[in-house]
Amino acid sequence: MGQFTSTVRITGPGDSFWSRYSGALFLLAPLLVFLIIFYVIPFAHMLRESFQYASSDAQAGEGLTLHQYLKTWSSARIGRVMERTFRMSLLTVAITLVLSYPIALLLLRLKSSIRTIILLVIFISLASSLIVRNYGWVVVLADKGALNALIQALGLMDKPVRLMYSEVAIVIGLVHFSIPFMVLPIYSSLLRQPSSLQEASQSLGGNAWQTFSKITLPLSLPGVFGGTVLTFALSMSAYVTPLMLGSPSSSMISQVAAEQLLIQLNFPYGAAIIVTLTVLTFLIVAAYATLLRKVFRADV
Fold first, then answer.
1. What is the model's pTM?
2. Which of 59, 209, 244, 246 is the most core-located residue (most Cβ within 10 A)?
């Protein structure tokens, strides 16, 4: 019989970067090209635009300037809208997490057939139009809508409650939109946990709460991190939902930026607002990740 020999090459510290990561870079190449073309280049152009004078500026001139950022940071209106955006985004994250974590736990314990049906419903909700979903909430939250009709039928209120065109309506719409983005990462994180850990906890005398607080929740923090970051980023940058369900008094920062870009045609000022929002969001996410790593020892 002939001999069959094979050679297995193990990469080591002396190998070049290309030889160690060429396969991963090749697989990531389409995504990297997409991000560069549709995100990095437009954002770089917007960043450059934010350091320019607008034609409407009193001291308009040539060259780079911090005028737009100074105007953004000193504006009382921008400060109020930014505070409202941050507050409503945090509230959306909290409500979405409270609603989504039990759903993820329930998915883990259901029969495979029922779990598949629920997951299909979640994916279908992702595929439906955001505008259609918001119009659905307009019907439900209107003064003579289904929710007010139910409240009055139960005798809780004598007259309709003003829900539409308010911060409440915006948060409801954002929570509805964000639930799939919270459920799926948490469910994926729970799915990777070995069932033997829960069994070991129970065999050592741990009750359901101790098992959840000491094992299930800490090990699911990477999924919680992913879901909360996605929800926070989507809420901070939301435009369609606050435009349809809110009012000028409950506008969010993306609406102010769109007003400057599309109505006032003040591109440098609008670009400065968007860059400020992007940098602030990244800083908050970085601080949140650091908190989970340092305090909760989460692998995020």
1. 0.87
2. 246
